Amino acid sequence: MSYGVAAALQAAIFERLSGDAALAAIVGPAVYDAVPRGALPRTYVSLGPEEARDASDKTGAGARHLFTISVISDEAGFARAKAAAAAVSDALTGAPLALTRGHVVGLWFERARARRVGAQDQRRIDLRFAARVQDD
Fold this sequence. Notes:
The protein is of the alpha+beta class and 136 residues long. The protein has 3 helices and 5 strands, in the order ααβββαββ. It has a single domain (6-134), classed as Phage tail protein-like (STM4215-like, 2-Layer Sandwich).
């Protein structure tokens, strides 16, 4: 197994989401690797937890990364949050990611969970993706 591609994968995901025009039209620049303190935009995207499992084979070291991207919104209804979630999914699955180390063999949407959370009745959509990476 190799966890060596993890940082490159995370950076590529962040770069892709931060530079996506369709997502920016919904959330502006509010794509966070670490959510800042203080006032937040009404709708934003946050990179979430990750789990990696060995996926090495005879061609070399690799891993399967399961990661979550969250859309959080305090706007009424789920419409804006779902539009942002769709833009996240389209951005990540629409074209291959370029990594600074290794390469992505495949990236797939696995599932999403939309719910209300917190005292302010925020909307939260957690999108789960799987990426198979190879460490070159």
